[in-house]
Amino acid sequence: MSSLAVDLRSTSGYLVADARGRLLGRVESPMYGTRPDEPDAVAVRKRFLGKRHLVPAEAIESVDEESGVIGLRVEREAIRKFL
To answer: At residue 75, what are phi and psi to the nearest 5 degrees?
Structure first.
C-alpha cells in the first residue's frame, strides 16, 4: 500500500496526470483487492465510452485536494488498461 495520507475512496472525479503532466483521465472509482476496506488502486477513464486504466496506489506521487488532481510518478505507457 502507498504511504499517501489521502483516502483513495474520496478521489472519484479527480483528474489524473502522468509524470510528464499529460492527462490520463478522470477517476471513476476506487478499486479494492487485498483488503476489503482499503483501496489498492483507482479506475481512471479518459472518455465516456473509453477504456479504463488501472492506476495502483504505488504509482501515485501526489494528490492535490484543492484542485482535484492526482499526479503520478510513472508515465501513461506504464499504466495497465482494462475494459
So the answer is: -85, 160
